[in-house]
Every structure is written in C-alpha cells, then in structure tokens.
Amino acid sequence: MEVLLVSPFGYCSGVSAALSLAEKAKREAPGRDVYLLGCPVHNELAIKSLSSLGLRLLDGRKVDLEKAILALPSGSALVFSAHGHPRAWDDLAQRKGLSVYDATCPFVRQNEALGKERNPLIYIGLPSHEEAEAFLANCPHAYFYDAASGDGDWRQCPGSPSLIAQTTLSEEEVHDAEEEIAASFPGAVLLKGRCYATKERQKAIREAAKDSDATIVLGSKSSNNSRKLQEIAASFGPSYLCLDLGEVKALPLEGYRKIALASGASTPREVYFQVRDYLSSLPPSPRMLFKAR
C-alpha cells in the first residue's frame, strides 16, 4: 500500500517541552512525590510513559484540581499542564511549599498575556477545554463565545471588542466565529488564534487528504487538535482517528491504494513510525473503493 506521510508529525514543540519538564521534575525530586496537575498533554500513551516513571496524575475529570493542590503533602513537586491553569493556583502551590514546574505552552502564555491587555475582549473556545477554562480564569473581563454552539455571553460585550481564539481550534471554527461576532460587532478584530503547529498540520492534512483514498490521523480522542485533523480530512473522504497500531490494524482498509498518515501534536513519533511501517507492508489493493469528492 502506498503511504503519504503528512508532515509535521510527532510531538509539537510545546508538547515536547511539557513532557521534558515533567521528566526533569522527577529527576530533580528523587524520593519525593511528583504530581501532574491535569493531563499535561492529551494522549494516553504519553501519559502512560510518564506514569511509568512514577509521576502521579491528578485528573481534572475525576477530582477538583484546586482542592487537590491543597491536599498535596508539603515538599511535593507539582507539574502544571501545557494547556495553562488559573494563575491563582501558583499562589496555592507556594503556600503549600510545593516545587512548581510550569509546562504551559508558550503560545497559550502569549494569548493570556495579550488577553490581559485588551478590554473589551471576546474569547473563542470550547467550554470544556482546559486551555479555555484557564484563559477565562486569568482574564475574567473576557466574554466567551462557544466555538461548538455559538452560545456564551459574548453578545453582552460592550464596545468594539478584540478577539482571541483557543490555539487548537480549526480554521473553519475560528472563521465562523469571526463572521457571527462581526455581525453584531463590525469592528471586532482577531488578535491571536491557532498556534503555529495547529496551522501547519491543518494545512498539510488538507492537501494530503485531497490526494489520497483515505486518511488516518494518529491521536487520542481526548485531543482537540487530533479530532480537528480527522474532521478536516473527513471533508475530503474516509478518515479515521486511531490511538495506536492496534486500532489501525482493526480498520477496514481493504480497497484503499493510497492512505495519508497524519498525527496530532501529542502523538509519539515511534507510534507514527510503527503505523507507517505496517501500512507500507500491506499488499496493494486489487480494487479501489469509491471516494466521494
């Protein structure tokens, strides 16, 4: 089978830095407990790798993270996730005597810094995403536009607002939000949005999906940037979101001659190469499935 490699693949720079910082925390805290506050990245394989080093995950889907900080033993090490966090938690950690490692992505930091300077402001994001929750906590003056539904309190924003968007949204989501907001606020201007890694991967998968019979995106279903890549590819033909080689092997790939292989920003490179080698080893299909365009 012919495999079209969609580049870039593997970890983005922000994810790579976050995982390296988590490993550094463990090295610098021998004999102490090291806690990951929320998933540092949205990929089960990456989290499993960190857990194997002895780092303990505090999952925001299961526990109240602010209360979890207050319950940590003094002297423990705490790693904040790449998605950002309420800055008030820094003070909590300091009062508890915790060693803090902040893995917040530089693009997320830039958005927050810019958001603090702008008023009035509308933030475009997903309400259940850590990045959006952190931004709104750190920029409480911002009004919110739900990129999934168009809901939120954004219509109550006074004046001519600036716009900032979550870094992992799709181009379509940001564009649609801009259009709807502009209907009520003609002077609204988007200042910051998708990060470089998101833009490059979404651009690359559009081109690859056009030139392939099907697309496989390697990433977690909990990863917004991975889901967006799969959704973009689906507009051009069959597309699949798989965590690892096991899930790829379960796909109905008979009938495809050329498959585009992409990855989310938190997918390990070794998984990408495993799937590449597997797909390349498959014999050419004697027939080709119809692909709607």
Task: Provide an overview of this structure.
The chain contains eleven helices and twelve strands. The radius of gyration is 21 Å and the shape is flat. By secondary structure, the chain is α/β, with parallel strands linked by helices. The model has no long low-confidence stretch (mean pLDDT 93). Helix 4 links the parallel strand 4 and strand 5. Helix 8 runs parallel beside helix 9.
Keywords:
single chain; 293 residues; alpha/beta; 4-stranded parallel β-sheet; 11 helices; 12 strands; 17% strand; flat
Number of strands: 12
Give Rg in angstroms: 21 Å
Helices, by number, come to: 11
State the end-to-end CA separation.
Answer: 21 Å
Main sheet record: 4 strands, parallel
Topology pattern, helix = H, strand = E: EHEHEHEHEHEHEEHEHEHEHEH
Low-confidence stretches: none
State the shape.
flat
Task: Kindly estimate the percentage of residues that lie in beta strands according to DSSP.
Answer: 15-25%
Query: Helical content, roughly?
Result: 40-55%
Structural class: alpha/beta
Tell me the strand order in the biggest sheet. Answer: 1-12-10-11
Give the mean pLDDT. Answer: 93
Produce the secondary structure layout.
Layout: E1 2-5, H1 13-28, E2 34-37, H2 44-52, E3 56-58, H3 65-71, E4 77-80, H4 88-95, E5 99-102, H5 106-117, E6 121-125, H6 130-138, E7 143-146, E8 162-165, H7 171-184, E9 189-192, H8 196-210, E10 214-218, H9 224-234, E11 239-242, H10 245-249, E12 258-263, H11 269-281
